[in-house]
Structure prediction request, 355 residues.
Amino acid sequence: MKLEIILEKGQARLTSPVYLKADAPHRFVIEVSDDYIASSSDRMPAEFQNEFAHQHSLPEAKPGSLQARFNEILGKFAHTRYGASIGDDHQTLLEALEQRYGGR
Amino acid sequence: MVAVNKPSLVQLVFDTNILVDAMLARGRYFQYAVQLLEEVRDGRCEGWVAPHCLTTVYYLVERSLAQETDNRRESDRLARTLIEDILSFLKPLPQIGNELTGLDGEHGNDLEDQLIVALSQEYLPNPLIVTRDKWFLTTRAFAAHPKDIIEQGLHLQNPEDQPTAFIDLSAQQRIIRPALQKNIHRVLRHGKYIMGPEIPELESRLADFAGVKHCIGCSNGTDALLMSLMAYGVGPGDVIFTSPFNFHRHC
Prediction:
């Protein structure tokens, strides 16, 4: 059976629901040509690009500040990161839950 | 650093996305999120978080850090440490379960968001939800973006020019609310409502505080006065001098 999938906002969505048997695999692979894959800078609006030029830098922190505390806890992981939309977070949460509980 | 935790006129309720932004220095506005949390940490305003958000915060932070290391134990430890750290100054909102009933089930919104609203309205007098989520920002008057809160000083304002209450027990309670609730539930669990184990503990701690040998719990102030007079052997014909600054029934 061929299924139609729409790629939208970084996520794949079936055009109509498909229900699988209980013993069917639940992971499938779709192949997309690298030529069509956008880089993170391609996806970012132009007005944001300057602001994100400093990505991956250590967040500025005054001694005793909360940022200094976060930097101390994170150690080598203390750096600025790209923003995430509410939808991005939701997708990340679903992936994290699937990874933790998938197959149980 | 220890938070002063004095009651404030507005109570900030931090949404999941704001906590993750702050912890991971994520996006354009993370400095505002960190600054607001710092205001809470330093006791300039109250900060709360809905308990059910914390698991989501954990998953998002852990997952993000896991993308930068193969060591999942490390990402797990860091995520837990960050949450533990913010919980040293952010108070978890009470959540006893029945807040789930009566939610309006608005379309296009998830239960997590609705619970944040329900808990904030149920337990706080003037909540202000700190969020980037457009659902909150467009549908709730008591939600604001961290940048707007900082720039307009919304967290330090008196929301409706409310007069300061002469006796504000709810504000007093909010300072100790998590400990208060934990201990109320402890009593409910063991069910010893009279002469339970909390009584000797309180007597012992009060005796230490007052620097005296004994402290005896009693049911009311009148009994306390009567017991003291009996201990001194005061009887008919004796004269007692007392302060006029007292509750009239004691005198």
About this structure: Chain A touches chain B through 27 residues (CB under 8 Å). The radius of gyration of chain A is 19 Å.
